[in-house]
Description:
Blueprint: H1 2-5, H2 16-45, H3 56-61, H4 74-88
Amino acid sequence: MHGVSNQGAPIEPTKIPGRVIFILVYLTGLVIVALYSAALTSILAIKVQHLPFTNEETLLYNSPYSIITVAGTVQVDAFQVRNHFHDLI
């Protein structure tokens, strides 16, 4: 078992069930360390972005940005209908 853990142990399992348990505990620890490392790496690798608006309402009414579309397209009609309904409410 010295080859698995690369260390000497005062008590080494000599029978098959003891060796199986030793290897399972070793592999479980290895998987836990790998999962922890992957989670930590993914948390530190992602940069949180703060967008200036969260939906179309804030884009239309509370944002310094303007919407540019081609005249006579479906997008213009959709925003005009939405503005009309918003004015009625």
